[in-house]
Amino acid sequence: MKKLFRRQAPMNRAEALLLEREARVLSWSLAARLTFTGILVALSGLHLAGLTPPGIVAQEAADAWQTLGVLAGVSVIVAWFLVMVRRQKAVRKIGLTVALLDLAVLCIVPWIWLEIPETAAFPPGVAKGDLYAICLLMVVINSITLRPLYPALLTVGCLILLITVAAVTLSHPSAEFTNSYIEHARTPAVNLGLLGIRCLVLALSGVFLTLIASTVRRTIRKAIGLEIANLELKERQAEMALEGRLASLKGLVSGLAHELNTPLGVVRSSLDTSEACVARLAPEQPGESTQLTRARRVLLEAGVTARQGVDRIHRLVESLREFSSLDESEVQRVDLREGLDTVLSLIDQATIGNAEVIREYETIPPVECRPRELNQAFFTILTNAFEAMQGEGRLRVATVQVQREVRVTIEDSGPGIPEERLRTLFDISFGQKDNRMGMRMGLPTSRLILERHGGRITVESRPGVGATFILSVPV
Q1: Lower CB density within 10 Å: C or N end of the chain?
Q2: Dist. CA 161–CA 151, nearest whole Å
Q3: Is the pTM for the entire model greater than 0.70?
Q4: 468 C-beta neighbours (distance < 10 Å), count
Q5: Cα(156)–Cα(164) distance, rounded to whole angstroms?
Q6: Any idea what DSSP says for residue 287?
Q7: Which among 344, 366, 363 is positioned nearest to 355, based on CA atoms?
Q8: Would 178 be classed as within a structural domain?
Q9: What is the pLDDT of residues 310-364, one digit of tens each?
Q10: Residue 399 is inside which H or E element, if any?
Q11: Does the residue 18 lie in any domain?
Q12: Which residues touch 58 (CB under 8 Å, ≥6 apart)?
């Protein structure tokens, strides 16, 4: 039990998936518990309204008010626990707390249900049937879980409770019964044989349900192991494909940069020569022909235009070199804002279209990473965002430091991602583009890149609103 409440170390993938299953099953158990307490609350209200006879929930109005208060408080707590579990927060602590809370309520209810004056005892129904049925029901509800500790704990507690109530009843032989319990007065307040049978049934049921919970837990753990092995195989395939693509990209960019730099140098030299020759020409003279003047002006303008084109090509070549980080070490400390600007400059203007790009860069520390790989992840997500907007809308790129990590937010105003697509967004799949079938590996590869850096990638989207990708990298 101490292990449940001590500070937990970061979970591996198997534990995280198992905890997700636990949360799902525990939410079912909490929903069943909430339904049960809701029925009792409704019956207490009907009793107070005089719509039901005494004895269903309580005998007197004061008892009904006490029961209603306890059950209403329990319902509020269970509802809050249900919300927390569905958000997967403190799942195991909540599960154990709920089991202990159930046991505490079971122990308190008999004393709230009917008071014990000095000369009275529990009405026989409490010891003979009603409490037993409730205990059995709560053991069943607590077995709807992947933690065998819960039904085992409830079983032991309920057995002790039943025996205690029976002992208290037997210790008051001068019990005074009300009319609603007249049928119980015809037989002894506690039938020891029947009590033994009920305790045996409760014990066997608890053992059986505990074994079922334990078996289901082991089965799910094995299934999770197979699921993780399958995911690791897919990720390894994606990683091998990524390494091949990065190696090809490196070779392509290296050859392209080399092939472009040589003719660019020739063009630059020729432009320098042309500009020098134009500068040495005699200045415009009075009476000079209009054709010569126009030719001189066109030559100057053509030189400026050509120089701008050469500079643009040179910047693109440098952006390609920065994108692949060919001239630098594999792992280094870089400013992610520079990588984002580089990637944005590489995206085809036809893909960007008329979309507005908003940069909201906050001051962030340098990050130790493989910039070539992160740039590819940025390129994939940014390109997808522009393609989703189809040349219109607004794209927001923001950076911020949150504790010990840097977060890059890429938010578009496109049509959004359908909910059914979100569940498989980062899975390797096949899709059609430009009348060709191909493997969709962009987003799976991006997630793999972030995980290799110790980070993560999350996505939020609503149809018709747009999509937001958040890339987190540890500092």
Answers
A1: N
A2: 15
A3: no
A4: 18
A5: 12
A6: T
A7: 344
A8: yes
A9: 887 777 777 666 555 544 547 888 899 988 998 888 888 888 888 899 999 998 9
A10: strand 394-402
A11: yes
A12: 44, 47, 64, 66, 67, 113, 114
